[in-house]
Amino acid sequence: MPVLNLVLIGFIGLLAGGVVNVLADDLPHYRLPRLPRYPDGARRPVVAWLGVGAFLSGRRASPGGVKLSWRYPLAEIASALAMLFTYAIKHDASDVSDLQLIFWLAYMPIFVLITVVDIEHRLILFSVIIPSALLALLDAILTPTQHEPNLQRALLGGALGFGTFFALYLGGILYTYIAIHVQKRDITEVAFGYGDVMMATLSGLILGLEAVIFALFITVFLGAVGALVYIVGRSLRGRQYTMHTALPYGPYIVAGTVIMLLFSTQVRFFMVGY
After folding, report:
1. Angle at CA 122, nearest 5°, toward 119 and 127?
2. pLDDT in tens, 211-256
3. 97 occurs within a structural domain
4. Residue 127: which domain range?
5. Which of 82, 71, 88 shows the shortest CA–CA distance to 28?
6. Dihedral angle, C-alpha 252, 106, 134, 23, nearest 10 °
7. What is the pLDDT of residues 115-172, one digit of tens each?
8. Interacting residues of 201 by C-beta distance below 8 A, sequence separation 6+
9. Exposed, middle or buried, 179 (CB in 10 Å: 0-12/13-18/19+)?
10. How many domains are contained in the chain?
11. Does 264 fall in a domain?
């Protein structure tokens, strides 16, 4: 594995993570992306444009004393590690072209951005999903193979992802309506937001019809495990779980997508034996 390639991809991953942080700061507030700033709005010096640089150079805090959170370096490191891991897993695969690998590397910071925004704001933004969906369609057009989706399979996968989660979305709305009007509960959250529907659609466009079926199963399983861990964790800390607490579901869809993107052969063999 060429060391120079790893260094280059790691560096690009850190830069991509810096872009992720800028977009995560501005897009949820429906602002055009700006140069990196501190939480109080003060501009960050060039050496602190990356969160890693801000922490290492001692420029974590603004002149007013407001500090950057750990999200900034962690998002950059996560983007770099995700790209490096993707390259390490797939660069020698005989059925993966260089162009296909570039597309997969490009998806990783997008997944980090979706995860960060959903965790922080409970949002999955159309301004992220739509360009990503166009990238996935371009991927399908330019890199169709026996194992990777062509345009038709990508569109069918997107339709399946959309249909499955739209049904869950409508079911959540129906349950909320019944709980409010019949059980007299005060509920302001739904189990699945429309952003989750769009993220499932993006997953289907990236993976294609066959692989997204497995990704949806993995997503539901991980979501159930995550909810259980959350409930147990609150109990261990002496906090009671509140019904209808909104939990971000986007990260589980991202996880299912990444697992099928990188380990589709292994998952198929484990789940169905071929």
Report:
1. 100
2. 999 999 999 999 889 888 877 877 777 666 555 556 788 999 999 9
3. no
4. 104-274
5. 71
6. 70
7. 999 999 999 999 999 999 999 999 999 998 766 789 999 999 999 999 999 998 888 7
8. 129, 133, 158, 159, 161, 162, 165
9. middle
10. 2
11. yes
Phi, psi values for residue 268, rounded to 5° = -60, -45
| CA distances from residue 14 to 58, 65, 97, 100, 261 in whole angstroms, order as listed | 18, 25, 24, 21, 22
Domain boundary, last residue among 32, 63, 92: 92
CA 36 to chain centre: 21
Query: Residues 259, 231: one domain?
Result: yes
Residue 99 falls inside a structural domain: no
Report the C-alpha gap between 5 and 106 in whole angstroms. 15
Angle (CA) 167-139-257 rounded to 5° is: 45
Q: Alpha helix (H) ranges present in 51-193?
A: 51-57, 71-90, 98-121, 126-142, 151-181
What residue spans of 209-249 are helical by DSSP H? 209-236
| Tokens read off for 244 | 């209808």
DSSP structural state of residue 150: -
**Cβ within 8 Å of residue 6, ≥6 positions away:** 84, 87, 88
Sign of the four-CA dihedral 91, 81, 43, 116: positive
DSSP 254: H
Q: Are residues 123 and 202 in the same domain?
A: yes
- pTM of the predicted protein model: 0.91
Which residues on neighbouring strands pair with residue 61, listed in sequence order?
Answer: 67
Instruction: Tell me: do 134 and 236 sit in the same domain.
Output: yes
pLDDT for 70 beyond 60: yes
